[in-house]
Amino acid sequence: MTHAATLLTTPDTADLYRTALDMLNRSGVPYAVGGTYAFQYYAGISRSTKDFDIFVRPRDVWRVLDALKRAGFRTEIAFPHWLAKAHHGDKFIDVIYSSGNGVAKVDEEWFAHAIRARCCRARSTWWTLTSGGTRTRAWRRTAQ
């Protein structure tokens, strides 16, 4: 089943996120969408957001950052133990690969139960729900 999420930001920002997701989809690197977009998908509660969260395995961080560079983002490793960022002007994507305390690294278990969903009108993305930094449900991206 495919669900479409309401835009939780301005149309131009959603277009930027869609461009990033389309580039990630073309790169084939596994990722999961989290944060506000996942919360809306699961709980039906919408709120505007200042950023976009994706989750990746630590071994895939550089592949994700390379794909985001090709989409026009400036990238950085903000905190080597858990977080990278991709900036485009005042907009940014958090690339999360572990918990802030470094204990819960994103691994295959985070991608164990995949469902396809649309986000920011991208062709296909996968969702994960996070709540207070704790993963409550995860999904896996597979070949189309």
Describe the structure.
- α1 crosses α3 (61-70).
- Helix content is 25%, strand content 25%.
- The chain is an alpha+beta fold.
- It has helices at residues 11-27, 35-43, 61-70, and strands at 32-34, 52-55, 74-79, 83-88, 91-96, 116-117, 125-126, 129-131, 134-137.
- The protein contains three helices and nine strands.
- The strands form three sheets. It has a five-stranded mixed beta sheet. A two-stranded antiparallel ribbon has the order 6-7.
- It has a single domain, classed as Beta Polymerase, domain 2 (2-Layer Sandwich), CATH 3.30.460.40.
- The longest helix has 17 residues, at 11-27.
- The two termini are 14 Å apart.
- It is globular.
Task: Annotate the secondary structure layout.
Layout: H1 11-27, E1 32-34, H2 35-43, E2 52-55, H3 61-70, E3 74-79, E4 83-88, E5 91-96, E6 116-117, E7 125-126, E8 129-131, E9 134-137
Parallel strand pairs: 2-5
Antiparallel strand pairs: 1-2, 3-4, 4-5, 6-7, 8-9
Strand content: 25-35%
Mean pLDDT: 76
Count of domains: 1
Q: At CATH's second level, what is the architecture?
A: 2-Layer Sandwich
Q: The CATH topology, please?
A: Beta Polymerase, domain 2
Helix content: 25-40%
CATH class: Alpha Beta
